[in-house]
Amino acid sequence: MLWRNRPLLAACVVVAATYIGVGMVGPVRVLFAESRGASLAVIGAMGSSYLIANFLGQYPIGSLADRWNRKWIIAIGLGAQAILTIAYLAVTDPLVFVGLRFVEGIAGACVLGPARAIVADSVADAERGRAYGLFEAFFNAGFLFGPAFGGFIAGFGYGEAFIGSFALRVLGLILAVALIPDLRSKTPHQVAAGGEARLFSRGLVGAYILAFGDYIWLGFDLTLFALWFRFHLDAAIVVIGIGSAAWALPSILISPVGGRVADRFRRWRLILIFGLAQIPFYVAYGVIPSVIVVIVLIAAHSIVYSFMMPAIDAYLAAMSPAAARARVQSVYATTGLAGAFLASAILPILYGYDYRLPFFVMGAVFGLCVLIGTRLVRHSERKVAIDGAVAVTSLTRPTDVAPSGELR
User: Fold this and answer.
1) Closest C-alpha among 166, 142, 161, 13 to residue 81
2) pLDDT on residue 232
3) Which of 17, 1, 31, 15 is nearest to 238 (CA)?
4) Sequence-ordered strand ranges (E) for 236-353
5) CATH H-level superfamily of 7-181+193-400
6) 65 or 238, which is more confident?
7) Which residues contact residue 156 at a Cβ distance below 8 angstroms, ignoring those fewer than 6 apart?
8) Minimal CB count within 10 Å: which of 35, 86, 248, 405?
């Protein structure tokens, strides 16, 4: 029973508390920087610096999390994030925001990857779809309550949103220390046995390509989402928070269902079907000027996404060497962040020409990544199924073995 799995539930609760804090400043950070004199170029640099630092920090931190205790990696990251969040309020020079975002990117690399590795450590493959569906629901709870709280509090002043975010990061730190089991990670010999080359098997490369396409939206979210809502959809600050929350609420409800589906069907099929089904949403965002309709579309998009993401997470965990799970998560995130970084650098330029262009480009690149990544995932899943059937055949009579060994 997943609800009795302490490491899984601890990781879920800590991530939820942490990302409520993250979500509280998400809708207002860009507007806060703009109020302090930041230009569009500086705003773009803020997003890029965060992504570069997060990119650079992922693998070293993932490697450390495979050698040390994952719990304390998460705790250190949360402590640093809390300090950095409150530091925003003292900034008067807009360029300092770029430096803060850089350091914040390194601290951010300490939380999500090790937490996902804890899930893979503590759950068998047959239940990983449901486990990651549950994890995704808690994760998105942060992005539901965080933007809603942040948008409401920011109505009284941007600074209050940052103070609230600081308090939630501290709460996440306390929960991490209190709830995550104090388990020792792999020994150095076991870590070395994982093999760096195995981090780039054909099947894992397919997942990394999917991450590249998926994270492009993150680059847009960090640089342009608030501006899109505020100036092209004519939305108030509170509505910007609602727009962010519109993604999170359906995901909280549907991700556990998507996880159950991922444990019953071939994961590559789910990734392909629900990945390609997202492309029309990108097109619609670029042509529909109504904020109400856009919020409805964001909610519907989230539902479709919630059937794809648990399948990717479960597949990634299944393909990860046991002694290198945090490193696999870090390479996955690093590849995704490369996509987010390119998006944060290129999309504002396209946005300057026509605000519709970023959506059309995101949809095209995402669709291409789904097609290429799914092809590699499909090959690897079939190979695993064939190898498993051969292993069973060697231990049983031929009549005892199913013809293909495949799930539906």
Assistant:
1) 166
2) 84
3) 31
4) none
5) MFS general substrate transporter like domains (1.20.1250.20)
6) 65
7) none
8) 35
How many helices (H) and strands (E) are present in the chain, helices listed first?
18, 0
Please name the residue that has the structure tokens 């965060």. Answer: 50
Q: Which SS3 state, helix, strand or coil, does residue 38 take?
A: coil
Least Cα distance to 22 among 244, 259, 278 occurs for 244
- Residue 323 and residue 66 in contact, taking contact as beta carbons nearer than 8 Å: yes
Tokens of 233: 């959809």
**Coil, helix or strand at residue 349:** helix
Taking the C-alpha atoms of residue 62 and residue 244, their distance in angstroms, rounded to an integer, is: 29
Residue 116 in contact with residue 61, Cβ under 8 Å? no
* Residue 396 DSSP SS3: coil
152: Cβ contacts below 8 Å, ≥ 6 apart: 238, 241
Contacts of 57 (CB under 8 A, 6+ apart): 105, 106, 108, 109, 110
Residues shown for the chain: 408
Question: Which of the listed ranges 51-55, 127-131, 319-323 does the model predict with the highest average pLDDT?
Answer: 127-131
C-alpha distances in angstroms, 129 versus 36, 282, 284, 320? Answer: 44, 26, 30, 15
Closest by alpha carbon to 347, among 213, 232, 220, 231? Answer: 220
pLDDT digits (tens, 9 = 90+) for 234-273: 888 778 778 877 887 888 899 999 999 999 988 999 999 9
List the structure tokens of 215: 């994270």
The Cα-based distances of 294 to 35, 241, 282, 344 in angstroms read 26, 13, 11, 21
Backbone angles phi, psi at 393, to 5 degrees: -60, -35
| Percentage of residues of the chain with pLDDT beyond 70 | 88
Question: Is 169 in contact with 18 (CB distance < 8 Å)?
Answer: yes
Average pLDDT over residues 214-240: 84
Name which residue leads in pLDDT, 228 or 367. 367
Which amino acid belongs to residue 301?
H
Give start and end residues of each alpha helix (H) in 88-197.
94-108, 112-122, 128-154, 158-179, 188-194
CA dihedral sign of residues 35, 345, 111, 297 = positive
What is the rounded distance in angstroms from the CA atom of residue 354 to the CA atom of residue 192? 50
Residue type, 196: E
Structure tokens, 309: 């993401």
Per-residue CA distances from 111 to 72, 91, 137, 326 (Å): 10, 25, 16, 11
